[in-house]
């Protein structure tokens, strides 16, 4: 959808270059500026949205604390048995 803004902005720029009316030229230049800015913001929004993380995959603080406690318990159990701690994949 944001590509439509680029095409319309270029069209407004072309009309501004071809017209003999100063008022129409000013209107078309302002319209071209706004449409091209909307295109840039749409492009940025699409790229930033593609790189954002999924919030449902994030670990909440309670789950993180539980995982740390489990890791600490494994370390203590391994140390009490005299074995080196195993690394998790």
List keywords for this structure.
89 residues, mainly alpha
| Residue share in helix | over 70%
- Using the CA coordinates, give the radius of gyration: 29 Å
Q: Can you tell me the residue ranges where pLDDT is under 50 for at least 5 consecutive residues?
A: none
User: How many β-strand runs?
Assistant: 0
Structural class determined from secondary elements: mainly alpha
First-last Cα distance: 43 Å
Average pLDDT metric: 86
Strand content: under 5%
Shape designation? rod-shaped
Largest sheet: none
Order of SSEs: HHH
- Count of alpha and pi helical runs: 3
State the gist of this model:
The chain has 89 residues and is an all-alpha fold. The chain has three helices and no strands.
Report on the structure:
- The chain has 89 residues and is an all-alpha fold.
- The protein has a domain at 1-50.
- It has helices spanning 2-18, 22-51, 61-81.
- The radius of gyration is 29 Å and the shape is rod-shaped.
- The model has no long low-confidence stretch (mean pLDDT 86).
């Amino acid at each position: 959808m944001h590509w439509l803004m680029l095409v319309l902005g270029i069209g407004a720029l072309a009309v501004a270059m071809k017209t003999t009316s100063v008022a129409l030229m000013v209107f078309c230049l302002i319209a071209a500026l706004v449409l091209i800015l909307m295109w840039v913001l749409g492009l940025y929004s699409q790229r930033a949205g593609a790189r954002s993380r999924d919030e449902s995959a994030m670990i909440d603080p309670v789950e993180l604390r539980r995982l740390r406690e489990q890791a600490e318990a494994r370390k203590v159990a391994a140390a009490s048995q005299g074995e080196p701690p195993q690394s998790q994949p």
